[in-house]
Amino acid sequence: MQMFGKKRRWHALPGVELTEMDKQVMFWENKGKLVPTRDLIKTPEQIEGIRRSGVVNTGVLDEVAKNIHEGMSTLEIDKICYDYCVSHGGTPACLNYEGFPKSVCVSINEVVCHGIPKSTDILKEGDIVNVDFTTILDGYYADASRMFVIGKTTPEKEQLVRVARECLEVGAEAAKPYGFIGDIGHAIQKHAEKYHYGVVRDLCGHGVGLQFHEEPEVLHYGHRGTGMLLVPGMVFTIEPMINMGTWKVFIDADDEYGWEVITGDELPSAQWEHTFLMTEHGVEILSE
Questions:
Q1: Share of the chain above pLDDT 90, in %
Q2: 48, 133, 155, 170: which has the fewest Cβ within 10 Å?
Q3: CB of 212 within 8 A of CB of 177?
Q4: Which residue stretches of the chain have pLDDT < 50?
Q5: What is the pLDDT of residue 170?
Q6: Reduced to 3 states, what is the DSSP secondary structure of residue 28?
Q7: d(CA 105, CA 107)
Q8: How would you list the strands of the sheet with 111-113, edge to edge?
Q9: Secondary element (H or E) of residue 188
Q10: Are strands 261-263 and 282-287 parallel, antiparallel or unpaired?
Q11: From the CB of residue 194, how many other CB atoms can be counted at a distance below 10 Å?
Q12: 3-state DSSP call for residue 169?
């Protein structure tokens, strides 16, 4: 099918022989599929920049893992993240981003994401905690989050944290060159729903690297063969938010900044996130 009357997202370069990538992308675009624009395909230099940023970003979360404990405040976690990032030449991307007041998102139990660090939020035995950090290094962005269990928690929370990690893994396994974003979401939804968990639909993964948020949107639910075509050189996050109950969420009315997202039934939620590079053979982790 020719895309007569529609603006193409992928253009052949004048005077340059078509590559295998060009042929693949144009084939799917001619079939009416959503394809990336060329600027979403990172150059080798850009990939190396994002990879360096990813090293710092992973180091931030490693530092949290060494220090997180019962009795500490989420504001202390913010300081750990800020100090490590800045001391390694980076800048916390979250700090003052669209009014977000801190360097990191720290989300406890029923807080799905975007939890704002506070001196009054003290970690307790049994809490499950998501720490989500994004680093800017030399203009390149890398983004990841991890779950932490404080002391001993319930079997139900332990399972939720484990299954959320498995959802990230099955989503990454489903991400193939010249497959589709919907393949990722389908795999995640199928795995989560085995446990009767809800997959959050109001928030998603995203392209990343040269900006904090780029195309494509990476939904964590859906159908195979839908969404944007995945092409080698694309960099994006997969970050499924898995709820023990309903997939529905709301913004905390007590949050003066309008950021904190809570599960609709106030049951616990868990999330893991990596930044991935799509290669000719599958995804490579750039930050975890």
A1: 93
A2: 155
A3: no
A4: 1-5
A5: 98
A6: helix
A7: 6
A8: 111-113, 261-263, 249-251
A9: helix 181-194
A10: unpaired
A11: 10
A12: helix
Q: Is the peptide bond before 36 cis (omega within 30 degrees of 0)?
A: no
Kindly report, residue by residue over 15-57, the tens digit of the pLDDT: 889 999 999 999 999 999 999 999 999 999 999 999 999 999 9
- E strand or H helix at 78, and its extent? helix 74-87
CA distances from 218 to 34, 109, 226, 287 (A): 13, 24, 11, 17
CA 104, CA 118: separation in Å to the nearest integer?
Answer: 11
Residue 110: how many other CB atoms lie within 10 Å? 20
Which amino acid, residue 203? L
**What is the structure's pLDDT at 1?**
32
Give the length of the chain. 288
- Over the stretch 51-82, which tens digit does the pLDDT of each residue have? 999 999 999 999 999 999 999 999 999 999 99
Map tokens 């930044």 to a residue. 275
Whole-number pLDDT of residue 6: 58
Structure pTM? 0.95
Tokens of 74: 């989420």
Task: For residue 236, give the 3-state DSSP assignment.
Answer: strand
Largest CA distance in the chain: 64
